[in-house]
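Section 4.2 – Deliverable D4.2 (structural model, holo form)

The reporting period included a commitment to supply a predicted holo structure for the target in complex with 1,3-dihydroxyacetonephosphate. Inputs used:
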Amino acid sequence: MIQDEIRALCAQKNAIIMAHYYQRPEIQDVADFIGDSLALAQQAAKTDASIIVVCGVHFMAETAKILCPDKKVLIPEPAAGCSLADSCKAEDLAEWKKQHPEYKVVSYVNTSAAVKALTDIVVTSSNALKIVGQMPAEEKILFGPDHNLGSYITAQTGRKMELWDGSCHVHARFSAEALMQLKKEYPEAPVLAHPECKQLIINLSDVVGSTQALLNYVKRNPDKKQFIIATESGIIHEMRKACPEVQFIPVPPETTEGVGCMCNECEYMRMNTLEKLFACLRDESNEVTVDKAVAEKAVLPIRRMLQLSN
Ligand code: 13P
Ligand code: SF4
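Output (structure tokens):
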């Protein structure tokens, strides 16, 4: 079986497979470690493996490489990008900074290495409330690129920030109409949403949190019969494993055109397959590199985040 061959290659090469919760179920099942963006960065920072295969999107592999410059970091599909990271180019951020010289830049981890190099502190959806909440009140903040996450942080902490106008096309396209219908059909089911969702969806939700926080909520409430899920549906695999008796109902996108399913999948995350994972491990191909000068700057706001997350 291809899974056995992948595990044999990992043992032979002292390689570790790290997978995001939005990966295909079969990739999650073969991984050494599954996590959200924060957990993947934390895991990369402490692994003693020689090779790290990041089953996620490109910025996640870049983050691992920045934290582990001496290790070989591979990604099964190098074209696995991110619409949110793409919405903020380094040169545009540099221009924004120039217009606001006295501001601190807080960047979501869903950004390129070049953007991180222009950043004061990186956050993920797991720690953004805590980190922004701790910043001195007199510090002015430029926050990017996710506008929805930025608005959510402001609503929760009262902290005003200048927001970049970017979004994740997956989280921005959940249908509020369909969610209202699901709430009528399943009145007892808590609605769990990711803070990258638009305001309308957040307002209709009972629990808002990072992928990990939503999974933790499910695990802490195994007595519930159903949950309605407004985040990329890959997380449902892990939720089902934790609570096999529970029904998980994905909120559909506004239109299935270009999505191909009623459960809202990130097509970038799904580009990684078992076959590509096997080939990249076998050939040690698709190595992720980051310019040394960029990496030396980008590592500082990532390390700051890891310290503040402890
Ligand atoms: P988290 O992994 O922080 O929940 O973010 C979700 C996401 O969209 C990752 O690309
Ligand atoms: Fe980027 Fe959204 Fe896909 Fe996450 S789900 S990788 S934020 S496009």
